[in-house]
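New here. Your pick:
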Amino acid sequence: MNIGDLLAPERVNLRSDVGSKKKALEVLSELLVTALQSHAQGEVFDSLLARERLGSTGLGHGVAIPHGRLPGLTDAVAAFLRLERGVDYDAPDHEPVDLLFALVVPEKCSDVHLKILAALARMFSDSETLAGLRAADGPALLGVVARWPIEEPDAGK
């Protein structure tokens, strides 16, 4: 499984009209809910916001990975938002965030959830990947993330 398997073209958005962390989370919630049959946009937003209240999901270098858990979900679902201008996101380096990869996972999905987050952290620590994400259009952007594998849990351990 690759990071690109979690995304779909309709959940990738390049926006210039987002001016706050809250608005970014609202847009991501709208994108995510397009793949969720049994959840409302408000539920998704609340899940992302609840996680943010525990501590910012900003990684630094203009990247954030807002994520949350939803009851009744069977698979992880992702959305990607690239902003024309970064927003204040309480990132550890105090830099504005312009690349947001949102993830919702099943309520009881801890191991897979952690593997996906680890893969995303690796992906977003690569300066070449960040440059590619900032330069790519929608379809090409999916190509940038599609090659990043999610390590499967070791079967024998």
In short: Residues 3-146 form a domain with the Mannitol-specific EII; Chain A fold (CATH 3.40.930.10). The beta strands are 12-15, 58-60, 63-64, 67-70, 77-87, 97-106. The CA atoms of residues 46 and 68 lie 9 Å apart.
